[in-house]
Amino acid sequence: MDFQYLSKEDIPKLENELFSKIGKDFLSRRVQKRRNLLDYVTKKNLFLILTKEKGVIVGYLAYKLEKKGVGKIIGAGVELNFRKRGIAKKMLKQAIQDLYNKKIDYIYSRTWETNLASIKLHETLGFKKYRTFKNDRVNGESTIYFRLMKGDIQ
Predict the structure, then answer these.
(1) What burial letters (b/e) apply to 123-145, b meaning 16+ CB within 10 Å?
(2) How far apart are CA 61 and CA 106, in angstroms?
(3) Which of these, 27, 62, 115, 120, has the minimum number of CB atoms within 10 Å of its CB?
(4) CB-based contacts of 43: which residues, under 8 Å, 6+ apart?
(5) Burial of 70 by CB count in 10 Å (0-12 exposed, 13-18 middle, 19+ buried)?
(6) How confident is the model at residue 25 (pLDDT cuts 50, 70, 90)?
(7) Each residue of 74-102: pLDDT tens digit?
(8) DSSP conformation class of 80
(9) Domains within the chain, CATH numbers bracketed
(10) Burial of 116: CB neighbours in 10 Å, binned 0-12, 13-18, 19+
Protein backbone atom coordinates (compact mmCIF):
# COMPACT_ATOMS: atom_id res chain seq x y z
CA MET A 1 0.00 0.00 0.00
CA ASP A 2 1.19 3.48 -0.85
CA PHE A 3 0.06 6.52 1.11
CA GLN A 4 0.38 9.95 -0.44
CA TYR A 5 -0.56 13.48 0.45
CA LEU A 6 -2.47 14.90 -2.47
CA SER A 7 -1.14 18.23 -3.68
CA LYS A 8 -3.23 20.77 -5.54
CA GLU A 9 -1.23 19.91 -8.66
CA ASP A 10 -2.29 16.22 -8.40
CA ILE A 11 -6.02 16.90 -8.16
CA PRO A 12 -6.87 17.62 -11.82
CA LYS A 13 -5.06 14.42 -12.89
CA LEU A 14 -6.90 12.29 -10.32
CA GLU A 15 -10.32 13.95 -10.25
CA ASN A 16 -12.15 11.34 -12.34
CA GLU A 17 -10.61 8.43 -10.46
CA LEU A 18 -11.36 10.08 -7.11
CA PHE A 19 -15.01 10.52 -8.02
CA SER A 20 -15.36 6.96 -9.26
CA LYS A 21 -13.95 5.74 -5.92
CA ILE A 22 -15.77 8.19 -3.67
CA GLY A 23 -19.12 7.49 -5.31
CA LYS A 24 -21.96 8.98 -3.33
CA ASP A 25 -19.77 9.93 -0.41
CA PHE A 26 -19.91 13.29 1.37
CA LEU A 27 -17.16 14.81 -0.75
CA SER A 28 -18.82 14.15 -4.10
CA ARG A 29 -22.11 15.71 -2.92
CA ARG A 30 -20.34 18.82 -1.68
CA VAL A 31 -18.17 19.20 -4.74
CA GLN A 32 -21.15 18.95 -7.11
CA LYS A 33 -22.16 22.40 -5.90
CA ARG A 34 -18.84 23.78 -7.14
CA ARG A 35 -17.01 23.60 -10.45
CA ASN A 36 -14.58 20.87 -9.53
CA LEU A 37 -12.63 19.16 -6.78
CA LEU A 38 -9.67 21.54 -7.01
CA ASP A 39 -11.98 24.52 -6.47
CA TYR A 40 -13.56 22.84 -3.45
CA VAL A 41 -10.28 21.74 -1.87
CA THR A 42 -8.72 25.18 -2.40
CA LYS A 43 -11.66 27.18 -1.01
CA LYS A 44 -12.06 24.91 2.01
CA ASN A 45 -8.31 24.59 2.66
CA LEU A 46 -8.57 20.81 2.72
CA PHE A 47 -5.74 18.34 2.89
CA LEU A 48 -6.22 14.92 1.26
CA ILE A 49 -4.43 11.64 1.91
CA LEU A 50 -4.83 8.85 -0.63
CA THR A 51 -4.09 5.16 -0.29
CA LYS A 52 -3.24 3.24 -3.44
CA GLU A 53 -2.88 -0.45 -4.15
CA LYS A 54 -1.07 -1.23 -7.41
CA GLY A 55 -1.63 2.34 -8.56
CA VAL A 56 -5.40 2.34 -7.91
CA ILE A 57 -6.99 4.53 -5.22
CA VAL A 58 -8.52 2.34 -2.49
CA GLY A 59 -8.91 4.93 0.28
CA TYR A 60 -8.88 8.62 1.09
CA LEU A 61 -9.08 10.92 4.09
CA ALA A 62 -9.88 14.65 4.04
CA TYR A 63 -9.03 17.05 6.87
CA LYS A 64 -8.49 20.74 7.45
CA LEU A 65 -7.34 23.51 9.72
CA GLU A 66 -10.68 24.77 10.98
CA LYS A 67 -9.44 27.82 12.84
CA LYS A 68 -6.43 28.74 14.94
CA GLY A 69 -5.52 25.75 17.07
CA VAL A 70 -8.31 23.50 15.75
CA GLY A 71 -8.20 20.68 13.21
CA LYS A 72 -11.14 18.84 11.74
CA ILE A 73 -11.41 15.42 10.15
CA ILE A 74 -13.84 15.94 7.27
CA GLY A 75 -14.27 12.34 6.22
CA ALA A 76 -12.70 9.13 5.03
CA GLY A 77 -13.51 6.21 2.83
CA VAL A 78 -11.99 2.84 2.05
CA GLU A 79 -13.10 0.51 -0.76
CA LEU A 80 -15.18 -2.40 0.58
CA ASN A 81 -12.67 -5.04 -0.54
CA PHE A 82 -9.85 -3.26 1.32
CA ARG A 83 -11.52 -2.71 4.68
CA LYS A 84 -10.31 -4.28 7.93
CA ARG A 85 -6.66 -3.91 6.88
CA GLY A 86 -5.86 -0.83 8.98
CA ILE A 87 -5.94 1.58 6.05
CA ALA A 88 -8.27 4.11 7.67
CA LYS A 89 -6.27 3.92 10.89
CA LYS A 90 -3.00 4.64 9.09
CA MET A 91 -4.49 7.58 7.19
CA LEU A 92 -6.08 9.01 10.34
CA LYS A 93 -2.79 8.70 12.23
CA GLN A 94 -1.02 10.57 9.41
CA ALA A 95 -3.65 13.32 9.48
CA ILE A 96 -3.39 13.63 13.26
CA GLN A 97 0.40 13.95 13.08
CA ASP A 98 0.21 16.49 10.26
CA LEU A 99 -2.35 18.60 12.13
CA TYR A 100 -0.30 18.57 15.33
CA ASN A 101 2.78 19.56 13.32
CA LYS A 102 0.70 22.58 12.28
CA LYS A 103 0.36 23.56 15.98
CA ILE A 104 -3.18 22.28 16.56
CA ASP A 105 -4.40 22.05 20.17
CA TYR A 106 -7.23 19.65 19.40
CA ILE A 107 -8.91 17.85 16.54
CA TYR A 108 -12.55 17.08 16.20
CA SER A 109 -14.44 14.64 14.06
CA ARG A 110 -17.91 13.14 13.80
CA THR A 111 -19.65 10.01 12.65
CA TRP A 112 -23.05 8.39 12.51
CA GLU A 113 -24.15 6.51 15.61
CA THR A 114 -24.47 3.31 13.56
CA ASN A 115 -20.92 3.48 12.12
CA LEU A 116 -19.43 1.17 14.72
CA ALA A 117 -16.13 0.76 12.85
CA SER A 118 -15.61 4.52 12.81
CA ILE A 119 -16.52 4.83 16.49
CA LYS A 120 -14.04 2.09 17.42
CA LEU A 121 -11.32 3.68 15.24
CA HIS A 122 -11.76 7.08 16.88
CA GLU A 123 -11.69 5.61 20.38
CA THR A 124 -8.64 3.44 19.58
CA LEU A 125 -6.69 6.55 18.58
CA GLY A 126 -7.65 8.45 21.74
CA PHE A 127 -10.64 10.49 20.55
CA LYS A 128 -13.25 11.07 23.24
CA LYS A 129 -16.98 11.42 22.63
CA TYR A 130 -18.03 14.86 23.70
CA ARG A 131 -21.41 15.47 22.13
CA THR A 132 -24.28 13.62 20.47
CA PHE A 133 -26.95 15.29 18.38
CA LYS A 134 -29.99 13.05 18.54
CA ASN A 135 -31.94 12.35 15.35
CA ASP A 136 -30.15 15.10 13.40
CA ARG A 137 -29.58 13.09 10.22
CA VAL A 138 -32.15 12.92 7.43
CA ASN A 139 -32.79 9.25 8.20
CA GLY A 140 -33.31 9.95 11.91
CA GLU A 141 -29.89 8.77 13.06
CA SER A 142 -27.81 10.66 15.58
CA THR A 143 -24.36 12.17 15.08
CA ILE A 144 -21.56 11.51 17.55
CA TYR A 145 -18.85 14.18 17.87
CA PHE A 146 -15.33 13.31 18.98
CA ARG A 147 -12.43 15.43 20.17
CA LEU A 148 -8.74 14.55 20.46
CA MET A 149 -6.69 16.82 22.69
CA LYS A 150 -2.97 17.14 21.98
CA GLY A 151 -2.07 15.24 25.17
CA ASP A 152 -4.37 12.31 24.34
CA ILE A 153 -2.61 11.05 21.20
CA GLN A 154 -2.34 7.25 21.19
Answers:
(1) eebbbeeeeeeeeeeeeeeeebb
(2) 18
(3) 120
(4) 34
(5) middle
(6) low
(7) 888 888 888 899 999 999 999 999 999 98
(8) G
(9) 2-78+85-152 (3.40.630.30)
(10) exposed
